Amino acid sequence: MEDCYKCGVPLGMGIHWTIGNEIQRCIWESPESMPEVDIQSGESFAYYCCEQHAMEATEEYLLQVGATAQWSDVRPIETCACCGRDFDTTKWHKVLVLYQERGSILINPEMIHIDYVARFCADCVPCS
Ligand SMILES: [Zn+2]
Ligand SMILES: [Zn+2]
To answer: How far apart are the CA of 53 and the centre of ligand 1, in A?
Structure first.
């Protein structure tokens, strides 16, 4: 059982928010098609009882790495949250992700919602 990283409330089997990193690549079969997100790896590193606490922690994390939240979409070109330059999202890059999940965080919780808080170009945040 994990506790909220912000307030220490125990997280049960209900809804919680998770912050994690993913290494992603966005793929378009054709200009009209919906993008596919290819995920090389992902790791969750913090868990929260409510959206408020997750958002506060997200802001603190971004401040630490000198980035600003972009709440980015899945587009061929997105803005790097660190350097503010546009980059090609079809190349592997790191993404700060906020998940809303249900169930125990230890045994594969069910994903309810996912937000891409910030995308980082490989110059600012290397993938390896
Ligand atoms: Zn909390
Ligand atoms: Zn950058």
So the answer is: 5
pLDDT digits (tens, 9 = 90+) for 63-94: 998 999 999 999 899 999 999 999 999 999 99
Ligand nearest to the backbone CA of 124 = 2
Distance 25 CA to ligand 2 centre (A): 16
> For residue 84, which ligand has an atom nearest its CA?
2
State how far the Cα of 83 lies from the Cα of 121, in Å rounded to an integer.
Answer: 8
Quote the ligand 1 centre to 60 CA distance (angstroms): 15
Question: pTM of the predicted model, to two decimals?
Answer: 0.92
What tokens were used for 63? 């401040």
List the helix and strand counts (H, then E) for the chain.
Answer: 1, 6
Residue 88 has a pLDDT of: 96
Q: Where are the alpha helices (DSSP H) in 1-128?
A: 51-65
Residue 46's Cα: distance from chain center in Å?
11
Among residues 92, 73, 70, the alpha carbon closest in space to that of 83 is found at 70
Q: What is the pLDDT of residues 43-70, one digit of tens each?
A: 999 999 999 999 999 999 999 989 999 9
